Every structure is written in C-alpha cells, then in structure tokens.
Amino acid sequence: MLKFGLPLAVLLASASPVLAQAPKVKPETRILHENLIVLDTHFDTPANEANPSFDIRARNKVEDGSQVDYPRMVEGGVDGGFFVVFTPQGANTKEGNNAARDHALLRTMVIHEMVARNNDIFALATKADEAAQISQSGKRFVYISMENGSPVAGDLTLMKTFYDMGVRMMSPVHFANNDLADSATDPKGPVHGGLSPLGRQFVAEANRLGVLLDASHASDQVLDQMLDLSKAPIILSHSGARAIYDHPRNAPDALLRKLAAKGGVIQINAFSGYMKDMPDIPERRAALAELFKTWGSPRDVPADKREAYRAARNAIEDKYPVARANMDDLMKHILHAAQVAGKDHIGVSGDFDGGGGIEGFDDITYFPALTERLIAAGFSQEDLAKFWGGNALRVLKQADELKGK
C-alpha cells in the first residue's frame, strides 16, 4: 500500500505512466452522456494551474502529471467541477496555521485568475443552480472547495473570508490530525476522539454560512460526529467503500447508511491505493522518492526535460511493476455504495491531478466509458443524472438553503 507519509508529489509519481487513449463508446452513450450535467467533486488541478508553464487551454498529458484541462473536459463531456484549494498539513501551531492560511489564500486566487484569464470558456459558480445555467451558456463551471481546514484553524472567522472568495465546500482535515479533527490516516492515531471543540465550531460555522461539509480524509469518529452535528447533509467528495477494500480512508457500511439517512452523498474515489491491495515494494518506494528528489513533482518538470523524466520513471515502472486498480474495482465500489446508501446518495470523483487515476480511467476523457459501464450495470438515465452531478448539486443546494437555521 502507499505510505501515508510520502509527499503528494511522490504519490503522483507512483501512478504508472499511461499512454492509452480513452476507449470509444457507443454513439447513443455519447449522446446520453453529453445531455447530462457531468461534474467531478475533486479536481486538484489548481496545483497545476499554479505552475506558470501549465496551460489549461492546451491538451496536456497524463504522463506529465496532468489529467484535467479544457480540451479534455470537452472530449470527456465534463461540464465542470469543484477545483480544490488543497493545503498540505503543517505544524499545528500559530505559525503553522498562519502559513496554511497564506497558502490557501494564494491558491484560491490561482483559481480566480484561471477563470478570469479564460472567461470565454470558464465561469465561477457559487450556487447549485448555476451549473446548468453556465453549461447552457457554453462555458464550463468552476466551483471552489477547500481540502484540509488548517487554513482556518487559527481563526474560524476566516471561513467567512473564504466563503466571500467563493469557497462552497470545506473539509476539516487531510492526511494528518490538525486543530479541528482527527485524520483517518495519521500514523499517530487520533488525538481528539473525533472533532475537537474547535472542530465542532467549524461545523456550526459551515452550517451558518451555507458551506457544504466534506468528510473525506476524516476519521470515522469525525464523520459520525459531523453527521450528528450538521443541520445540512454532508458529502464525502472522494472516498470509497470499506466493505470492498478495508482502508481507513473508506467509509464503513454503517456510516454509509447514516450518511444517506441524513441526505448526504459519497463520491466514489478512483485512487488505486484506496481501492485494492497495492503491494509495498520498498525498493520501488525508495526509487520514487529518489525520482522526486531529482525531478520534483511531475507537474513541475520543464517541457524540455520531460522526455528524460519519463524515461527515468518508466525505468522504475519496468523494474518494479505494480498492477493498478481498474474499472472493475471502481464498479465494485460504486455498486456496493449504490446498494448500501442508494442511488440518490452516490457519485464519482477521479481525484484527478491529486494522485487518482486507474487502469481504464486515467483522466476525464474516460468519463463516457464509465457511463457505458453504468448503463450495462442497469443504471437508468435518471440514475445517471443523479450520479454525474444531481446528487452533489442537491446537497450543495441544501447546505445553502439551510444556512443560518
């Protein structure tokens, strides 16, 4: 399995280089897919956009650390999504929280700049109904979410600041515990027994503002307590089903049922390490860490060095191959969540540009292929409308409608 402590860039590099093109789908599948509002609830693309050499209007390559851009949104029939303000967890100190705040403010501005520079193809969305309105205008919609609450942990009044900047989804915690909550994956184990007192205030303030609460990466206790405390439904923006693969990042059936009973949604993740056993090969892990030391994140490799970088990474893949999860694994998680939580409470997120991507689902151009698999599994057009965006937009709308109540 992937190690929790590895830098995100190493996790990005750990995925096998992929050169395949998305499979063709039946014409009737393409027509159905194009007529849906299709969104992903977790695009880590702002990390690419922060690199001056990245061009979201160009078709970039998976092997260069990019899975989302405008040409591929068009090809994949993707109408938009939640673009993530991700902040790596630092020290739980005043200085650490201030650094997290500053990082998140800058990353939020990266998203605003992306939309402003490309306002002929993108539009910022803050209300659920705007997804359809923006799509009908011919543009792609951009919602903003915050992954990891450490930027606001030092001062919860900052939640209003980020809300005013367009953030409409927030999660309390990421890989490691912070001042708000326990993480599902902190090797030290829980320190708060779920939410801290400050974390409970975080939930209340999100409800007051109308921010959709996201419990992906949070411990089971945190999710359970958030479900008890929140007046609005909760989303798991990129998680899996623990009954299919026993990983602390995945939700157990009891909490899936409780999530659904409270009106919430789980967006099934497409990240190999959370979907099936990934053998830990120490030599491979060491080689990837060395690759990162030499080259940095694949998204930061200069254009004139990419061929050499790819050769170095391919050599590691050839020497220490690891079979990734595939579409069959993804369908197992989806179908289980549909059975336990119900079709009104599921969706999908590739966790693209953040380490996601599996065999047969490598970037957003593969979304129509997933639609074809879902149709074959018995999903109706109504089911697909909910799965591809309707369920997520419903809880976003409910969070807004219930604000202050």
In short:
The protein is of the alpha/beta class. It is built from 16 helices and 9 strands. Strands 1, 2, 3, 4, 5, 6, 7, 8 and 9 form a 9-stranded parallel beta sheet that branches.
Report on the architecture of this protein.
The chain is α/β, with parallel strands linked by helices and 405 residues long. Helices cover 42% and strands 11% of the residues. It contains 16 helices and nine strands. The protein has helices at residues 8-14, 27-34, 46-49, 70-75, 94-117, 130-136, 150-153, 158-164, 197-209, 220-229, 253-261, 282-295, 306-319, 327-340, 367-376, 381-401, and strands at residues 39-43, 80-86, 122-124, 140-147, 167-170, 212-214, 234-239, 265-269, 346-349. Helix 10 links the parallel strand 6 and strand 7 (234-239).
Shape: globular
Number of helices: 16
Largest sheet: 9 strands, parallel
- The total of beta strands comes to 9
> What proportion of the residues form beta strands (DSSP E)?
5-15%
